[in-house]
Amino acid sequence: MRESGLNLPKRDLKPRISGITVLIDNGNPLQFFKDTINGASEFVDYVKFGWGTSIISSSLEEKIEFLRQKKIEYFFGGTLFEKFVSQGKVEQFYKYCEKHGCRYVEISNGTFDMNNKEKALFISEFSRHFTVFSEVGNKSTEKSEDFSPAQWIEWIHEDLDAGSAKVITEARESGTSGFCRGNGEIRFEIIEDIISSGIGLDRVIFEAPNKQIQTALITAAGANVNLANISFADPIALETLRLGLRSDTFHLFD
Questions:
Q1: Domains of the chain
Q2: How far is CA 241 from the centre of its chain?
Q3: Edge to edge, what strands does the sheet with 104-107 contain?
């Protein structure tokens, strides 16, 4: 970031444990992928290859090699993990991650019918060999509506106790489930309870696929809130939101 003389929020340099940005690659063309990483690498901490795109992406190896050159970590979407679980092939998922040199894995239960205690056993197992980012919340809008803030807090604690390095809160890439309602409305009571729970916010990553959610989370938790499911079109725009350089957050950091 250039010296400007402005009073802006302090942002840690990489590698950082808070204020991290996780981009989601949903199968972007290779050159666009590289151009984005080239132009925003100082603001990007991780790339998630969304859901099962890594299975069919023709340029996965080239993308991974480019991320290694830029010293950006990567992992595969939790839905892919759940697909392996649903077919009783967890060992194959382990080998798949190992084959691609993953140091991080995402463990979730947002699609496949698996309770959080069962998921915690997988977290414990995988955390012996990988850094685990687990995910709480459900991808079903209907099911998500039934989960109370207290349940979210319980799940986060359970995942952290099982060995998860950070816990991701579900909102999907559409922003229409998890801590969001089907119409995109944010369930602020969940966010507020997580913030006030005593769980260190450096241990929580909020999915924030659009500007509305990003702005709400920065307003509630500050410039250095951890955010995921960020589009490849948005890393620079998100950084300006974090710094109060857009109208949406202009008055937060005077």
A1: 21-249 (3.20.20.70)
A2: 17
A3: 73-76, 46-49, 21-25, 227-230, 204-207, 166-169, 131-136, 104-107
Of the pLDDT bands very low, low, confident and very high (cuts 50, 70, 90), residue 142 is confident
CB 22 within 8 A of CB 46: yes
- Radius of gyration of the chain, Cα coordinates, nearest whole angstrom: 17
Hey, what amino acid is at 154? E
Return all residues near 84 (Cβ < 8 A) that are at least 6 apart: 90, 92, 93, 96
In tens, the pLDDT along 17-76 reads 999 999 999 999 999 999 999 999 999 999 999 999 999 999 999 999 999 999 999 999
Quick: pLDDT tens for 183-196. 999 999 999 999 99
Which of these, 202, 112, 108, lies nearest to 159 by C-alpha position?
A: 108
Distances (CA, A) of 134 to 60, 75, 166: 23, 12, 7
Please say whether the beta carbons of 88 and 115 come within 8 A: no
